[in-house]
Amino acid sequence: MESQNVEYKRSWKDEYLKWLCGFANAQGGTLYVGIDDSGNVRGLEDAAKLLEDIPNKVVNYMGIVADVNLHHKNGFDYISIGVEPSNVPISFRGKYYCRSGSTLQELNGVALQQFVLKKMGHRWDDIANDSASIDDIDRQAIDFFLKNGYENGRVKKDELDAPTEVVLQNLHLLSDVGKLKNAALLLFAKVPQKYFTCVQFKIGRFSHSEANLIIQDVIEGNVIQMADRVMDVLKSKYLTMPIRFEGMRRIEKLEVPEEALREILYNAIAHKDYMGAPIQMRVWDDRVEIWNEGGLPEGYTPATLLKQHSSRPRNNNIANAFFKAGFIDAWGRGYKKILEGFDAAGLPMPTIEEVDGGVRVTFQRNNHGFSQEGLLETREETTEKNDNGSQKSMQKSMQKSMQKILGHIMDNPQITLSELADKLNMTRNGIDKNIKKLKEQGILRRVGPDKGGHWEILREV
């Protein structure tokens, strides 16, 4: 029966050369002519002529040699055409095909670029960029890398002051002639978007459906610092940090295990296909979804990641820098650490799926039942008239949560509403609404008058 390496055709047509092209660009295979889709031999009237014509056409159109043989069964002739896998890209009439499963795919765009690079023994992040120079590198990003690497025991103290060129050379981010590789620009460029438009991390807060987008952020910049920037935005706008008390000490802890979340971010950034779409994070009331372009390594499934497996990064140079900085391991233990983190926090295990040409990780939130409306307050929508008399509306971004209000009250029980509004950059109306919710939930109460009184926190959140 037909499979990854076998295809049946009732009769011969020259267009079937593309199937042979697909075999050569994949794992090789055999095309049988004179056999129907069910595997029954139907015979060929012109088998002898095809036996001579097909090898010549394969050589002329594709420059490869096919093993063509004549067979007999039950009084019928049929032909087998065997093709070995090629270590260089093979085209047929200017187009590239690849066998995937039992189907033939024409390669275009990003898929074709990746295919050609792989066949030529290259990776996209390893290619030199002729238009960039050392002036494009941000020394602060280099210092951030070295500092983290030193703190994690993977960079020596005497390397902290190493020149930028030396650091890049040690990370194998310069070509033989000293040109910056794509990975160097992704990791350390002042403005990597100057060269790669999709170096972005998009975050969106949704309610009920994807049609209801409440707030969004786009994080740009080099990828060595991207996870830190994403975490800062998540903590300030998207995820809760419930307050609890140990004696007089106030503790704010992220609703999901922070180290496990960082591991998810590092995986998405390190394994992303940077010729594809930006990384996308969708935050819902009950869950968070993180998707990055680029499928799993060949032969891997989501189940592979949940057990012991070899590390096979898409971007070797980026993964190497992340390892030297202490962000990731080099042993394929990332998802094991993620699962251990969520298990220790008493949360359900994250799920991993291959979706829309990429990998999506979904994990449940532990936000104590707070809705987005209870955590963040929308500032007034301001309108202004332009010179033509038209109006344009700008919705201010969501501001601090009720937990932040409690934090300031813990620091200063005599704090006034006006002072809270100033510290949290919120309107008095926004503060009033949050204070009202806190009172209704039995968390906060006011003792004494507005002037001269104080706040009391009645219970932990």
Describe, in plain words, how this protein is organized in 3D:
With 461 residues, the chain is an alpha+beta fold. It folds into 4 domains: 6-119, Methyltransferase, Cobalt-precorrin-4 Transmethylase, Domain 2; 126-194, no CATH class; 200-309 and 328-364, Heat Shock Protein 90; 400-461, Arc Repressor Mutant, subunit A (Orthogonal Bundle). The protein is 32% helix and 23% strand. The chain has 15 helices and 19 strands. The chain has helices spanning 17-25, 47-62, 109-119, 139-151, 164-170, 182-188, 226-238, 258-271, 302-305, 316-324, 334-344, 372-375, 402-411, 417-424, 428-440, and strands at 6-9, 29-33, 67-73, 76-83, 91-92, 95-100, 103-107, 200-207, 209-220, 243-246, 249-252, 279-283, 287-293, 351-355, 358-364, 382-385, 391-394, 444-447, 454-457. The strands form 6 sheets. It has a 6-stranded mixed beta sheet, with helices on one face. A 4-stranded mixed beta sheet has the order 1-2-4-3. Helix 8 (258-271) runs antiparallel to helix 11 (334-344) and helix 14 packs across helix 15 (428-440). It is elongated. It starts with 5 loop residues before the first strand and ends with a strand.
Question: Key terms for this structure?
Answer:
single chain, 461 residues, alpha+beta, Methyltransferase, Cobalt-precorrin-4 Transmethylase, Domain 2, Heat Shock Protein 90, six-stranded mixed sheet, four-stranded mixed sheet, 32% helix
